[in-house]
Write a structure and sequence with these properties.
17 helices, Rossmann fold, DNA polymerase, domain 1, DNA-processing protein DprA, 3 domains, 9-stranded mixed β-sheet, DprA, DrpA_SLOG, globular
């Protein structure tokens, strides 16, 4: 896929700001028309036959009022060193690419790599206890040798404790926001948010000047889950944003760990119930989690990879199976979401194919929902 032109990006922003047009409809429009710019050049008869586009949406697109708004927003991003990452751009975060509800555009500031090989989401209650703070700081300290990027939500409590511990240990960390990048919430964390941009940064799907409305927080939580290979819940009540993040992580087939807490503690009820209901693995130490994830510390000798002798044509396999085998041979061990994205397959279809290939002795499943050739 080619790099998007500036005007194509402006047209994509315009679709986002068009009344009645959501992420699914935008994908349909761009897929049917061949690009965002071509959507605005299409006529009414073509638009009305695209799934999800009715009379009202078609007329809103043809009105083109959102184009002027998008041009101003694009210029504002340029003037404020705000990076734009579009779903159809090759630079879009790979971990989000295959998700059914991934944002059409992400806004970011800072100095980080979305596609670092290891990412850990750390979430928890805003009313964190001293125990929760201590555990969070210990987790960050123990993660340092594994070269991970920590993802959290910049909120009070566990989130900000994790971000500040990362700053202390010079580890990359990104805060996913429920507002525009120029609306730091809570405002008390503005200094930390600024410091994070030296080795990490801020990310949101919301345009500049967007206020952190209540309904934007669950949407923010799905991005935290999507950007994380594994999510750790440090402390949580039985209801709250952390458990919403867990639900998204499970839907995305990502690993979840919960730190057990004292019985009767309101701060730990959520974690204890996640463990009880097998919705999260019990967190005992970073080392134990790293073993389960198949991670090695920096400087460790990588596990020996045996060469695989296999015919290039993969005779005897279906076209889809051959595609999976070719990808695994080319790239080595792959996370299931990454494999889904590269293969262009829905996760349900991919899971069935992988299971069949396992039965045939061609692939093996690894910790952390990863697969490799045998």
């Amino acid at each position: 896929m080619l790099e998007l032109t500036e005007y194509e990006k402006i047209c994509t922003l315009a679709l986002i700001h068009t009344p009645g047009v959501g992420a699914v409809t935008i994908r349909q429009l761009i897929s049917h028309c061949g690009g965002a710019e071509k959507v605005f050049k299409s006529d009414y008869r073509k638009l009305i036959h695209i799934p999800g586009v009715g009379d009202k949406v078609a007329r809103a697109i043809l009105n083109k009022e959102s184009l002027g708004m998008a041009e101003k927003e694009f210029l504002s991003c340029k003037n404020t060193t705000t990076n734009l990452h579009f779903f159809f751009d090759p630079a879009y975060p790979a971990r989000l690419k295959s998700l059914y509800d991934s944002p059409i555009v992400l806004y970011s500031r800072g100095n980080f790599d979305f596609n670092m090989s290891r990412t850990v989401g750390i979430v928890g209650t805003r009313q964190v206890s001293d125990y929760g703070k201590s555990v969070t700081e210990t987790i960050i300290k123990e993660l340092e040798p594994y070269h991970v990027m920590v993802v959290s939500g910049l909120a009070f409590g566990v989130d900000i404790t994790a971000h500040r511990a990362c700053l202390k240990h010079n580890m990359p960390t990104i805060g996913v926001m429920a507002s525009g990048l120029d609306v730091i919430y809570p405002f008390a964390h503005k200094k930390t948010a600024f410091e994070m941009q030296e080795n990490g940064g801020l990310v949101t799907e919301n345009a500049l000047a967007t206020k952190p409305d209540f309904m934007r927080f669950p949407a923010r939580n799905r991005i935290i889950a999507g950007l994380s290979d594994v999510t750790i819940v440090v402390e949580s009540a039985r209801k709250g944003g952390s458990l919403i993040t867990v639900e998204f992580a499970q839907n995305y087939h990502r690993d979840v760990y919960a730190v057990p807490g004292m019985l009767g503690s309101v701060h730990s009820e959520g974690c204890n119930f996640l463990i009880r209901d097998n919705k999260a693995s019990i967190f005992t130490s970073v080392e134990d989690m790293a073993v389960a994830m198949g991670w090695e510390q920096a400087g460790d000798e990588p596990a020996e990879v045996r060469p695989v002798q296999m015919q290039a044509s993969f005779e005897g396999f279906t076209q889809d199976e051959s595609q999976i085998l070719a990808l695994l041979r080319q790239k080595g061990i792959m996370q299931v979401d990454e494999l889904s994205w590269h293969a262009g397959m829905h996760l349900n279809k991919l899971a069935a194919l992988l299971l069949n290939l396992e039965f045939q002795g061609m692939v093996r499943s690894l910790p952390g929902k990863k697969y490799g050739l045998i």
